[in-house]
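Bumping with the actual sequence this time:
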Amino acid sequence: MADLTLTIDGGTVTVPEGSTILDAVRSVGGDLPTLCHGPTLEPANVCRVCMVEVEGAGALVPSCSRVVDEGMVVHTDTDRARHSRTVVMELLASSADLERVDDRFSAWMEDHGADPARFTGATIEGRPAKVHDDLYVRDYARCILCYRCVDACGEQHQNTFAITVAGRGFDAHISTEFDVALPDSACVYCGNCIAVCPTGALEGKIAWDMKEAGTWDIDRQEVTRTVCSYCGVGCNLDIHTQEGAIVDVTSPEDHDVTLGNLCIKGRFGWSFVVSVDE
């Protein structure tokens, strides 16, 4: 593919054809806030926290999906772009519990001077987590409707289509068909929705329990790369251990076999190792 040259905040950047503005920004060591963007998924364009200004465009554009053009001039730090990102972050943080989003979000909020308290009337309260089994938890009070779980469950990865978005406005939520319990749905418990969730709304049961109890400590965890032994596909596993106990299993997003995905055996087939049952 040909290389394209564009200007970002006054600097010249050259990237391969087909790259997005976000790719271009990151190629020179920069970054932009984003929550719905997943490296293994097509851009969903729903969180709207990565908006930038492009000369000649009437409206702000999402950097995660806008493909660059030759000679494009992009401004990421204008008052207009920053104001848009600030308000969106305030709205998201006022309507969902985002304390489990990684530290980058807090840094973005601080950098933009975002104040979610301005929109406290939209806060979702009293929505209990759904715990239907010992594999994972659906804590939708943390959900920002980024669609990443829906896309991972659907045609982009698993093709199970067990979940979708139901309702409208403040009633919109991720749901199974007819809002049935997860064991009664089409879910195959691959957990690939967990792998792409950016907020902790979907999380492994052991990790969720530990975080609720305050015992989860990523600084004390070790990650060991291995190969799943359940079949011959060759999926890579990252085994997360804390104080000698397995607390989570993930797969590397850049692995050409899995792209971060696993089946129920690979993601949850280790739980017997830490079982407390006699």
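The tokens above came from a reply further down the thread. The radius of gyration is 20 Å.
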